[in-house]
Amino acid sequence: MLMNANSNPLAPDVRRCQFLSLIAGLFLLGGCAHSPPDQRTSTAPGDGKTVVTPPPGKADHPVAASEQAFEWKSLFDGKSLAGWTLTDFAGAGMVDVEKGQILVRAGVALSGITWTNALPKIDYEVALEAMKVDGGDFFCGFTFPVGGAYCSFIVGGWGGGVVGISSIDGADASENETTKFMNFEKGRWYRIRVRVTQPKIETWIDDEKFVDQPIEGRRVSMRAGEIELSEPFGFATYQTVAAFRNIKIRRLTK
Fold first, then answer.
1. CA-to-CA separations, 146 to 16, 122, 184, 216, 247, in angstroms, rounded
2. CB 192 within 8 A of CB 128
3. Which domain CATH number covers 134?
4. Tens digits of per-residue pLDDT, 24-58?
5. CA distance 175 to 166
6. Is residue 124 assigned to a domain?
7. Ramachandran sector of residue 199 (left: φ over 0; alpha: ψ -120 to 50; beta: rest)
8. Which domain does 94 fall in, by range?
9. Residue 56: inside a domain, yes or no?
């Protein structure tokens, strides 16, 4: 004989188990709803960008705020010298734009260009590509501001192989702790990057770091002579033909 649920002596126990199962399910669902997510999102102040913040322990090297908030700004349009002027070196070589690059021809001594518009003086980064076309000395003498002072990153100086900062405590790129040596090939593009922050100057050539120079309590200055005409921001060569392209800058802080 068939019995309905009301006549089943085990029905109350079945209903009790179903009720407890329902309560347990709701409890687990509520716990999941309040569990912390794997990552949090927030809007970076002032720029309207969404920043993804990994939870503690999920990122060994968090992305710096500067990488998210500040974009690279081009200083060369690939077609003209807009924003640049020829540096007034005695006996300087001509400067032209050819095939998307700035071509600086060799002069009696120094040749080059200087930026004419406003730029940051601290907490910024510059990147470019430079090539030695012909000649035997530096093909990139990059002058830049460091707070209220100026200095130059020399690439391929003193006969073609010296790399360093001119000057630190009055000592130029060939005789201070930034001095290094590298063989530079003609006709090859080198990626150069310079970062200036409150505590130090850093430089790279391709993927190799060449300068990591603390500047607190140190005297940063230009090497005395015509190179000072490159201030506040310029590129120079010495008796060498060079090409530059992809020159860009970005701020590291607001």
1. 77, 6, 27, 11, 19
2. yes
3. 2.60.120.560
4. 444 444 443 333 334 433 333 333 333 333 333 33
5. 9
6. yes
7. alpha
8. 73-251
9. no
How far apart (Å, rounded) are the C-alpha atoms in residues 106 and 115? Answer: 19
140-191 residue pLDDT tens: 999 999 999 999 999 999 999 999 999 999 999 999 999 999 999 999 999 9
Tokens of 230: 């490159």
* 102 domain residue, yes or no: yes
CB neighbour list of residue 71: distance below 8 Å, 6 or more residues apart: 250
**Overall number of domains in the chain:** 1
- Residue 60 belongs to some domain of the structure: no
DSSP 32: H
How many angstroms from the chain centroid is the CA of residue 155?
18
* Tokens at 20, concatenated: 């407890």
- Contact between 143 and 234 under an 8 Å Cβ cutoff? The reply is yes
Among 73, 118, 128, residue whose Cα is nearest residue 252:
73
* pTM, full prediction: 0.74
Instruction: Write down the residue that tokens 């060939």 correspond to.
Output: 174
Q: How long is the chain?
A: 254
| Amino acid present at 163 | V
